[in-house]
Model the fold of this input.
Amino acid sequence: MTLNGVKQTMMCLVVLTLAMHVTATQGWASSSLAVKKALFQKAELAMQEADTNKTRFFAPKTFGQAMDLYKSAENDYAHERSMKDINDKMDQAVLMFNSAVKISDDAAKILQDADIARNNAHKVMASRYKPNEWDEAENTFKRAIAKFEKGDKEDAQVLSREAEALYKIVERHTIVYSYMAEIWDTLKKIETMKDKDLLAPKTYNKALELARQAQSELERQAYGNETAKALIKEALDQAKYGLKLSECIKALKDEGKTWEDLFLDAKIPLESMDSIIHKS
Done:
């Protein structure tokens, strides 16, 4: 055999060896994936069923413990540790996932009044407009959920009723704020323009009284209150008018104008003035 022939034969052997190695590696990888799928299948199904917003909200601790067990088993498998330990962790994870689903289903029913109140408060964006009150209600409800998850249902229900009341309060306060914010902001602008005294006190006081009446009506009945809506519109119109009037009076004062100047600036025709004088 020539030298070139030997080289070609050796090259073929190398290629064949590499091909066999790749095939074996792919086969092992495929086999490994199949083993893992079979080993983790039951736990994966349990995890998929449990991984919902409801379960994460009503059974956060139990669901978290189940996830920790699942991830620990995955880590053990990746490092080729004891199959018995992996199986034990998978079995525990399945139990915890199933438990999380059961707890969340029960909690959603027993604590549903607070949950409904929470959703209503969320719809009016209470967390944005009244964050402190919202946080107080949230913390109370979370305490109720934690009690329920531990099995202390009586205390959970007591806290849940407290949370429900707080959510209803913050919902009402948010509605009042959203309707009244522009009115109060306009009245504050009028207040900042005053020079010892308000520039347009009569207009301001009328707007203030209307605003108080509107807020009182809203606090009494936040939804479907036509009287409140009418008062809100009237109060806002009056406040805007008071602001415009205050701006005009301030401009006149800043320019040092007198009542005579204001009268003259009105440019009343002399013949009209003459007719007024002769009529008096």
